[in-house]
UniProtKB/TrEMBL annotation:
Entry's Gene Ontology BP terms: enterobactin biosynthetic process
Requisite cofactors: Mg(2+)
Keyword entries, A-Z: Magnesium, Metal-binding, Transferase
Positions with a binding annotation for Mg(2+): 113, 115
GO-annotated cellular components: enterobactin synthetase complex; plasma membrane
Protein name stated in the entry: 4'-phosphopantetheinyl transferase superfamily protein
Keyword Ubl conjugation: no
Entries under InterPro entries matching the protein: 4-PPantetheinyl_Trfase_dom, 4-PPantetheinyl_Trfase_dom_sf, 4PPT_N, Enbac_synth_compD-like
GO molecular function annotations of the record: holo-[acyl-carrier-protein] synthase activity; magnesium ion binding
Positions bound to CoA: 46, 54, 91-92, 113, 157, 161, 171
Length: 218
């Protein structure tokens, strides 16, 4: 599942598995009132996801020695607002929530994404993939990775989550070309200018029904 091999050494992380059939709001109701207010108009399902993911974020901050009980609020485009000197990322999907944080002294920015290990719905790939990425997907499928297209999507999402805190600018799917490698790593080549870095490093894994992708800039 999620483990240290997906991250640089300075990253602290936490994840929880949940039963998609059971609606558990306990983590949500234990959040700071200001955090609860961020999704006060959402469905109970959304509140449960949010509460579990924020619980993971606070546990990761605790492991990093940066947890002070302060709420993790939202910035531009929903970006989590971490304590000073900390970068981080939050993700969730059905049955899985996770967060990761790191000292900015060692990691400038960090992004994580989790997706079900299933192929994308018909018609979606053409909207996210660049021409040069299709050959990689064919190669991965030949290695038995039937969900290679969703792996690409996951890597692009993690890339965006790493890019945005540094630039506060949108990054479209077509604005990063992903070099997915069979050894569980990838490189995201950024095709926009100006850019703070020419590429972003990443790692991926597929385990227990989920794809996990992490991206980071040292």
């Amino acid at each position: 599942m999620m483990d240290d091999s997906l991250f640089p050494k300075s990253v602290c992380w936490c994840y929880v598995r949940t039963d998609p059939e059971i609606l558990d709001l306990s983590n949500f109701y234990n959040l700071h009132p200001l955090e609860q207010s961020l999704v006060s108009q959402a469905t109970d399902q959304r509140k449960a996801e949010f509460g579990d993911a924020r619980w993971c974020a606070h546990r990761a901050l605790e492991d990093l020695g940066k947890e002070h009980g302060d709420p993790i609020l939202r910035g531009h485009r929903g970006m989590p607002l971490w304590p000073d000197t900390v970068c981080g990322s939050i993700t969730h999907t059905g049955g899985f929530r996770a967060a990761a944080v790191a000292p900015q002294l060692f990691v400038r920015s960090l992004g994580i994404d989790v997706e079900p290990a299933e192929p994308l719905p018909d018609g979606v790939l053409s909207g996210i993939a660049r021409a040069g990425e299709y050959r990689q997907l064919d190669s991965l499928r030949k290695q038995g990775i039937a969900c290679a297209d969703r792996l690409l999507f996951c890597a692009k999402e993690a890339t965006y989550k790493t890019w945005f805190p540094l630039t506060h600018r949108w990054l479209g799917f077509e604005q990063a070309e992903i070099d997915l490698r069979e050894d569980g790593t990838f490189i995201s080549y950024l095709l926009v200018r100006p850019t703070p870095v020419p590429f972003i490093n990443g790692r991926w894994s597929i385990s227990e029904g989920y794809i996990l992708a992490t991206a980071f800039i040292h």
